[in-house]
Amino acid sequence: MSEADPRPIDSSRPPWSLRRRVAAITLALLALVLLVVLAIALALGNVVTKGNDTVYRWGPAVTRSEAVLADLTNQQTGLRDYLLTGRTELLQPYTESLTTQQADVARLRQLLRGSPGLLRRLDTFTTAADTWHRETADPLIAAVRGTGPPPTGLDSAADEARFAAARQAGTDLAGAVTEASADARAARKNAIVLLSVLLAATAVLVLAAILAIWRGLHRWVLGPVERLGRQSRQVAAGARTRRIVPDGPPEFAELGSDVEQMRRQIADELALVQAAQAELVRSNADLEQFAYVASHDLSEPLRKVANFCQLLERQYADELDDQAKQYIGFAVDGAKRMQALISDLLALSRVGRTTDSFVDVDTGAVLDQVLAGLDDQIRMSGAGVGRSDLPTVEGDPDLLAALFENLVGNALKYHGDEPPLIVVTARPLRDEGVWQFAVADNGIGIEAQYAERIFTIFQRLHVRGAYEGTGIGLALCRKIVEFHGGRIWLDTDGAGQGATFRFTLSERRTVSAP
Ligand code: ADP
Q1: How many CB atoms lie within 10 A of CB 164?
Q2: Listed residue (153, 144, 138) closest to 85, CA to CA
């Protein structure tokens, strides 16, 4: 079955749940094991019984049946010798054989218990033997001893017939017992064969069960899990429109449906986010473009207003009274502030246009250049500037210069009663190639509650007259740092006076062009 077209669910009958399948298989296996164990136990018991029968019953039975026949012959021989000689001691073999025969018959009767046919044959023999004893042997012995009528002789036809009948019964008995013994041996052999067949069948069954379990596991568990995993990985790798097809037993089919539902939700939400992001990028670009054009186009008329106001003040100084001069001063001041605002806005709108200008920048050299530019302010305020070794990072040199200029400029601007003391440092972070910079001063400081607000455009903490500024500087710093893939924040942990700004920059570029 191809991966694009996984096994469809048969909707004509509700498929069994995996739990039910496992329970059914377990039960079937248990029943099978029980059956097999029972059958093997029975067959084994049969082999043992048959073996015992052969060894302890039929072996001795054959011996005893043959002994019984031999006893009879011995009696006849003993009797004959006694009759011929009339010597009492020669009757001993007869009497001994008779005793032995009785013992053999008694034992044989025990051994043949449960075989009515053979017992009948034994009875036939004992009856025939008794008849011979009673009607032939005993009268002859009595005659020889003189306690009975004279012997008619052993060779009489009637005596012969009685003995022959007894011998024949004995021979039949021995033959039948031997045959029964052979049957028992054959039955034992058959029982062994049956046990071997059962063991072989069990081995085949176990093998078949293992194969069936493996197949079931593959078809019901491994296969569906593998397919679900493969499909999920494809979605995770980016193919978000790839449908996940539910597959396998109900549990996995349900899991597949849940994952598919999740995929759909994520895909829908992602489409919304992407649309919103595209819209945001577009409107941001529009805004930046607007800010750039507006500030660019506004600077020219503004310059004119300021220039002409100053011209007016210079050329008509004699004709203007003090109030007029003051009004002109306000107008010039307003125009200048607006120029500063526009220039800062322009700088802000320029950040983040492209990373094409990214090069290796020696931040130490950049700081030198910034400090040279601020030389007048530094000298006038009597400021001291300290620094550690500063690293080379990848970035836009002009933007990084603007970053340092704003931070050092603020440190100079927001000084307290003491002359400003500014320290610029950098230390490597655990993330390889990332540096954390710090610009610390001993000025008026910033309360922790304003730590976020100061980075928002036009947000100032002082009235206009107290400190000059447009409220754009730190917003510009944040935009520059974030454009370089870093982060800037006010350090609120530092004890003591002054403010410390920290920001991170990388040796290698971590941003892509917007
Ligand atoms: P501004 O043009 O007013 O300096 P910024 O965005 O640079 O605008 O700063 C925002 C506000 O943060 C400032 O108005 C000032 O109150 C405060 N600020 C910035 N830097 C410092 C500093 N080094 N010490 C104390 N206050 C500062």
Answers
A1: 12
A2: 144
